[in-house]
Amino acid sequence: MTLSLGQIAEQLGLTLQGDPELVISNIAPFEKAGAQEISFLTNAKYKPMLATSKAGALILSKNHADAFSGNTLISEDPYVSYAQLAQLLDTTPACASNIHPSAVIEDGAKIGNNVSIGASAVIESGAVLGDSAQIGAGCFVGKNAKIGAETKLWANCSIYHEVQIGQQCLIQSNTVVGCDGFGYANKQGQWVKIPQLGTVIIGDKVEIGASVSIDRGALDNTEIASNVIIDNQVHIAHNVMIGTGTAIAGTTGIAGSTNIGRYCIIGGGVGINGHIDICDQVTITGYSMVTKSISEPGTYSSGMPTQANRQWRKSMARLSQIDEMHKRIVSLERKNSAEAD
């Protein structure tokens, strides 16, 4: 797909300085963009490189536009404009086209208008697929599950019984929604399974990465609000609640019955304990371990940054001595206090 700079400016609501007839065929990295390509700049430290850019056009803020003599699209937020342009030029194929002859659709399933279902997909009885939903090859949609209009499931997703997914969601391959939560009782060393009687409810415009596992609730439901984005290989345990606009990076694990607020940002590899509350607008940096509730917005971190091995060994040796050092300090404080008296 190609667009002229004039078309791009009009559709994105940007101010164009340059040739409206120039045809753009691709978005390219800033340092590699050629004469028929467009790129963008957000980091001020690269501003000196604008003078040598060979891009056909650049998306720039007002503060950077004076440093580039070529075609420029002026944006209040170049990164957002880049995202919007990428959507216009997106060539990603549909998850499925039409309804493949090998798809299994049981009696009692309700299929909306313009729904596409890929090869070997299974839609069980009572399931509802909204208008223009796309169900990729090999997907499973269980009994009485509901998939909203224009939602897309890439290949081999499994949506268990009774799960509800809203409109315009996107779920990448191999993700499982509604599997059993980790619920067991122990009777004299034997594990007794607790049936998971709740379900998963997902709002609108939620995007979920590949190989994500979202457990169904034990009694109440696991709930993910609208406009949440979840990266690859995340685990969300039973009865977790995630608020609107929250973003969760890859390999994060969230234990059961935790409530996460609105517009939180959770870095990669974070571990979050169960039965705690995290308030709105909290940022947790990568590989942190959250063991207690967080009641104030802000940025939270734990863990130790990488060090040279020799320094790390010294730090660990000193860490092992902290308890003894504490005892000595307390003893000295008591001694000094007694002498002062």
From TrEMBL:
One Pfam family named in its UniProt record: LpxD
Residue ranges occupied by any UDP-3-O-[3-hydroxymyristoyl] glucosamine N-acyltransferase non-repeat region domain in the UniProt entry: 22-88
Coiled-coil portions: none
Listed EC numbers: 2.3.1.191
A GO molecular-function annotation: N-acyltransferase activity
Signal sequence interval, chain numbering: none
Listed GO biological process terms: lipid A biosynthetic process
Pathway info: Bacterial outer membrane biogenesis; LPS lipid A biosynthesis
Catalytic residues as annotated in Swiss-Prot or TrEMBL: H238 (proton acceptor)
Domain of life: Bacteria
GO cellular component terms, semicolon-separated: membrane
Keyword field contains Membrane: no
Classification via CDD domains: LbH_LpxD (cd03352)
General function of this protein: Catalyzes the N-acylation of UDP-3-O-acylglucosamine using 3-hydroxyacyl-ACP as the acyl donor. Is involved in the biosynthesis of lipid A, a phosphorylated glycolipid that anchors the lipopolysaccharide to the outer membrane of the cell.
Assembly: Homotrimer.
Family, per entry: Belongs to the transferase hexapeptide repeat family. LpxD subfamily.
Protein name: UDP-3-O-acylglucosamine N-acyltransferase
